[in-house]
Write a sequence for this structure.
């Protein structure tokens, strides 16, 4: 019998009693003709850390590999609760913290 566990809350998912959701994430480097701005992006990227943490966890969990930063795809099992949370907030943004775009 196959056991699934939620990749977000680590709770075992009993597929008899509840729904299991699969989230597939594909990450690929965007290739631009002109170099995008590098310098002004530091303020609003802290949520990326959370994603990286999550991705790292998933990495460790499933042993998914990346092709040297070129592209990678991740597959996560989520329980219903975490799926809802994920859909509301797929990038792990903190709701209490507004993004501060300073338009100078
Ligand atoms: Zn969960």
């Amino acid at each position: 019998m196959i056991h699934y566990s939620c990749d977000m809350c680590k709770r075992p998912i009993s597929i008899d009693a509840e729904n299991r959701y699969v989230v597939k994430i594909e990450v690929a480097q965007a290739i631009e003709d002109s170099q995008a701005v590098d310098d002004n992006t530091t303020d609003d990227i802290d949520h990326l850390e959370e994603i990286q943490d999550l991705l790292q966890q998933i990495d460790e969990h499933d042993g998914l590999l990346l092709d040297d930063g070129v592209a990678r795809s991740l597959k996560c099992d989520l329980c219903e609760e975490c799926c809802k949370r994920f859909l509301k907030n797929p990038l792990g943004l903190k709701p209490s913290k507004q993004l501060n775009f300073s338009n100078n």
